Amino acid sequence: MKKQLLTVLAIGAMSGSALAQLPASTVAANKKMVLEEYTGIHCGYCPDGHKIANQLYAADPTNVVLINVHAGGFATPGAGEPDYRSTDGNTMNTSFGVNSYPAGQVNRTIYQANFNLSRSVWGAAGTVIKSQPAYCNVACQGTLDVATRVLQVQAQVYYTAAASTPTNYLTVMLLESGLRGYQSDYGNYNPTNWNVEFQGKSYNHNHMLRKTLTATFGDMITTTSMGSTYNTAILTYTVPAQYGSGSNVNTSYLGNMELAAFVCETNSTTVNGCKGPITLTNFANTTDISPNALAINQAICSKMDGAFKITNYGSAPVTSAVIGYSLNGVAQTSFTYAGTIAPQTQCNAIMISNNMTPIASNVVDLAVISVNGGSDQVASNDAATKSSPQSTYAANNPNMSMDFLQDRYGSESTWSIVDEGTNSVIISGGPYADLSANGTQMHNHPFTVVPGTCYHVQVNDAYGDGINAGYGAGNYTIKSNSANVYASNGVYGPQDHHWYKSATNLGVNAAAMNIMNVGLYPNPTADNANLSIELNQNENISVVVMNNLGQVVYSQKSEMSAGTNNVQLNTSNWAAGLYNVSLTTAKGSMSHKLTVTK
Question: DSSP state, 63?
Fold first, then answer.
């Protein structure tokens, strides 16, 4: 049996001045603003609400309490998305008649004839509330055993004056901050709240209601006279390792837990509230980290991309760590972490990227080398491994197309195809116009590729439900000279990723196009380049130059004579970058790359 350390750690997302520890103050004070924000991961305007709420807190942290309730249709997750709803939150959402999001209740008080308030008036309503005297003060605190995950909480209410109603109700809530997950955001309303993740990004969800530790609408207080004190019994709750179910589970981190408590009158009007600290106890070890959440490409073409995170299970904050890394058994440069990982929390994603020649099965291995300059006390969770197969999708002809069949909500769809070697976008599409009703509309996008090159297809859906979710049976297909390279049924979440490689011999050679030789020089160039085309007979040739965004910067179609033909490309006004120069005849296409420097 491991020796249990007596180390304890106080946690909480708020500063010490905002944490109301027992006993409750006996000094009369004004009300604190208690903002209960109803939100959801598919609510594109909700990040603006989160930003406004955070600004209100930052301006007056001692007197503002934030609670985020995920409920309603916008909080319903799709496949693979986190379910942040709670039974208590769903009950409150229904009882209070919330039907637009984000909506905020400021001390559950009517303001300008409304109870569920638009985010534009939260600040004004809070100013009114904080100017009013409170007849009671509230405090709460808890301890959380990291070995058993058992939380014990006590709250106290002290009446500095007699209550205006004979009975009050005390509600105590468990909240969690720092959850990284999906979020729709129509206008990039809260840009500082995003994290870089592998193949995308995640959103920081804070002050999220996990569980009401009392009755949903509070436990009754029957003695509310001046000078009286109300103490709860010890409220006990075992924090699950995960919330949600099936593909919608999301991990809870004990170091991110918070308490909130508030007193309401019989008609639900909130008199006062507080945030409370939680103290972590019963750590088994001082230093114990694990590299986890390892993710890599679903298939490997020419590059291994991925990411991992580090979770701190020890009692000491992690300020440095070295993680060893190998690829297909060959040691790579180790990762050195420098930052701070609080106990029972996880750091942001650490990125992996290596060019490689793939094999049938490609394996990434991670292992802890050191933590805080010393050894890790627990070896059993020091390693992580992940494998991915070699991509088998191939394009055998340079003439390709993206056939994108949108659903009703075309404005949610964007996509790009990226040359893995140069990381340049060769073509992209969307967003498209929305349709007036459920249905589909086809968009055909032709493009060309160069031989022996790997390409990454990334398709994005802003709402997170793909293009075949009941609003039209959308899909997309990558084609090479009408032959399917990859066909998607349109069922995916926020993103869909695939990789393919163009054949070294793309099936249409220069001789078949009557081209004897092609020259492109100087390359790289700054101001001018000469495209030299030597033909063995007269030929109609189209020359198209595209930048790395897929935009045409030059095009010419003409009949060229047998012998050497020169096309002058004036690149003086072109931005620095990589350009694709495509030659097309009736018998096929070929491409060359031109680098422009400035």
Answer: G
- Cis peptide bond prior to 191, omega within 30° of 0: no
> How far apart, in whole angstroms, are the C-alpha atoms of residue 407 and residue 472?
5
Q: What is the CA radius of gyration of the chain?
A: 30
Count CB atoms within 10 A of the CB of residue 230: 21
Strands (E), 328-423: 330-331, 335-341, 345-346, 350-355, 361-371, 383-389, 394-395, 399-406, 413-419
CA 82 to CA 71: how far, in whole Å?
Answer: 13
Q: How many domains does the chain have?
A: 4
SS3 3: coil
The answer to whether the beta carbons of residues 490 and 467 sit under 8 Å apart is yes
Q: Are 516 and 542 in contact (CB under 8 A)?
A: no
Amino acid at 242: Q
- What pLDDT, in 10s, does the model give residues 73-109? 999 998 889 999 999 999 999 999 999 999 999 999 9
Q: Read off the CATH number of the domain in which 415 is found.
A: 2.60.60
Q: How far is CA 192 from CA 93, 178, 187, 204, 340, in A?
A: 28, 13, 13, 9, 19
Q: What is the pTM of this model?
A: 0.79
Which tokens is 484 given?
A: 């399917």
What is the CA angle 6-9-11, rounded to 5? Answer: 155
In whole angstroms, how far apart are CA 556 and each of 468, 514, 524, 526? Answer: 39, 18, 21, 21
Enclosing H/E stretch for 584? strand 577-585
The one-character DSSP state at 188 is -
- Tell me how far apart the alpha carbons of residues 172 and 34 are, in angstroms, rounded to a whole number: 13
**Within its chain, how far is the Cα of 428 from the centroid?**
22
Distance CA 344, CA 312 (A): 5
CA–centroid distance for 63 within its chain: 30
Q: What confidence tens digit (pLDDT) does each residue in 273-293 have?
A: 999 999 999 999 999 999 999
Of 389, 413, 433, which residue sits at a domain end?
389
Name beta bridge partners: 338: 320
| Sign of the alpha-carbon dihedral angle for 70, 71, 74, 80 | positive
DSSP class of 125:
H
Residues 57 and 141 in one domain: yes
